[in-house]
Write a structure and sequence with these properties.
single chain; mainly beta; 2 domains
Length: about 180
């Protein structure tokens, strides 16, 4: 639907044309074009998802289901996720580098740095990050360590950065572009 409104006042002329959510305003010799965002979709909502996880070595063992909790918000292809991992019911931390699943495969390789390991025995916190390759939903986890004058990423595993106990826990969150929904 198209509406045209013309207003003439002295030497200035203003014309507003609305068509397909486009508004054009012309005044004298100056032209300004403003495009409105168009119709809005529904507001994104927070959804929960089942978080997978493990190691690239011997798998951890648990009494009952692993205590992995995940949620996300998706707006188009933009995804923000949050994962909490509680070690209360772990009986063996396994060997090798830890990984978790993100809710959707990523459109490009990503590195997220919004994670924290809580060492309850000392009260210290350690940085946790994650990397996923393009087209996957596996986030491989890293921690940081200092060697000489350099800060480096190291695989997050039992013993790096600390010897994990059942009192410890970690969380990680990040934002990425997912592969388009089908």
């Amino acid at each position: 639907m198209s509406n045209t409104v013309s207003v003439t006042q002295a030497d200035n002329s203003v014309v507003v044309v609305e068509s397909d959510n486009t508004v054009s305003v012309t005044q004298s010799d100056n032209a300004v074009t403003v495009t409105s965002p168009g119709p809005q979709g529904p507001a994104p909502t927070t959804e929960t998802y089942t978080v997978g996880g493990g190691t690239d070595g011997t798998q951890p063992t648990f009494t009952g289901d692993p205590m992995f909790y995940g949620q996300y918000v998706r707006a188009g292809d933009l995804v923000h996720f949050e994962v909490q991992v509680d070690f209360d019911n772990i009986t063996s931390f396994g060997t090798g580098q830890y990984f978790i699943s993100i809710p959707f495969p990523c459109a490009e390789a990503i590195m997220v740095r919004g994670g924290c390991l809580h060492d309850t025995n000392t009260g210290r916190q350690y940085h946790i990050s994650g990397h996923a390759n393009k087209g996957t939903s596996t986030l491989t986890l890293f921690t940081t360590d200092v060697q000489g004058q350099r800060l480096n990423d190291f695989p997050f595993e039992q013993g790096e950065p600390i010897t994990l106990t059942t009192a410890d826990n970690f969380h990680i969150q990040g934002t990425y572009i997912a592969e388009p929904a089908s």
